[in-house]
Amino acid sequence: MGKAKSAIAHLESGREPHIVHMIPPGAPGYREAAGGAMVVSSPAEVDALVRTLRPGEVLTLDDLRAALARRHQVATACPVSTAIFANMSARAAEERRAMGVPEAELTPWWRLLKRDGFLNPKLPGGMARQAQLLAQDGVRASPRGKQMAVYDYAERLPRDPVELR
Q: What pLDDT was estimated at residue 53?
């Protein structure tokens, strides 16, 4: 068995986004597309959109998917691949951090939240690391049940469309 690809290698794979015109019933994105088309983005495209987020700004995965759909002029973006590519982007940024890349050149993956402003325990370092990096941006995450959330995330959403940045 060969060595697993690094997250950086996945990000630089050259994979291109593609449009799915006929979404099978029950497939991820079927209900949201409501008969329309769905974009399956690419790791590089997701990474590029997350890179546009400025300190103090946050974006939810749903908002990221909406931006991808607007960019490709389709009804929705695949929820599964978008989440996977966001995770790849975060892992690639941490691989680069370990290689000594300056913080300012890293993809700010910590600014990407789950629905309703929740932090994502599946990202590198879990919710604690994401909360720590958000705090460096001046964004406060607080306990919400057993999880952590940014309560004022709606006020921190970008004012301009990230897909046009």
A: 97
